Amino acid sequence: MQESHVWTSAGIGFRRFSTIGEVDIREKVEDINTKFAEAREEIDLAMEAKDTVFFNEEALGAKKLVEEVLEEFKSLLDQVDERRRGELQRSMGMKMEQLKAEAAQLDEASS
């Protein structure tokens, strides 16, 4: 794995930017996409259980998976250069927003 570090000042402390290799990026994107699909399935299962005693447990599992996907996506964005970050945000950002919206439906259903 090829990795470089650049330290820059944004006026408030220092921020570290790392650049990871293209193969690593593809692997992480594939993993995020797989977990994205799993999270959507979990949300669907939870919504199907909406009026049952299983809803809270199903919803909790789905929300955990959604948080994991969003954290992995954020982590990936933090590891790439600005150009690649923009590409990833354009190609995957809407999916992440969709996932957030679907997870919010779980909160509404539990109210």
Q: What's this, in brief?
A:
The chain has helices spanning 22-48, 55-79, 82-110; strands spanning 4-9, 14-19. It is mainly alpha-helical and 111 residues long.
Secondary-structure element order, N to C: EEHHH
Instruction: Kindly report how far apart the N and C termini lie.
Output: 47 Å
Low-confidence stretches: 1-17
Q: How many helices does DSSP assign?
A: 3
- Gyration radius, in Å: 17 Å
The main sheet orders its strands as: 1-2
Q: What characterizes the major β-sheet? A: 2 strands, antiparallel
Tell the overall outline: elongated
Report on this model:
This protein is mainly alpha-helical and 111 residues long. It has one domain. The chain contains three helices and two strands. A two-stranded antiparallel sheet has the order 1-2. A hairpin with a 4-residue loop joins strand 1 (4-9) and strand 2. Helix 1 packs parallel to helix 3 (82-110) and helix 2 (55-79) runs antiparallel to helix 3 (82-110). Mean pLDDT is 86; it is low at 1-17. Residues 29-83 form a coiled coil.
Q: How are the SSEs ordered, and which strands pair?
A:
Layout: E1 4-9, E2 14-19, H1 22-48, H2 55-79, H3 82-110
Antiparallel strand pairs: 1-2
Helix pairs in contact: 1-2, 1-3, 2-3
Task: Kindly list the characteristics that best describe this protein.
coiled coil, 73% helix, mainly alpha, two-stranded antiparallel ribbon, H3-Acetyl_Activator, 111 residues
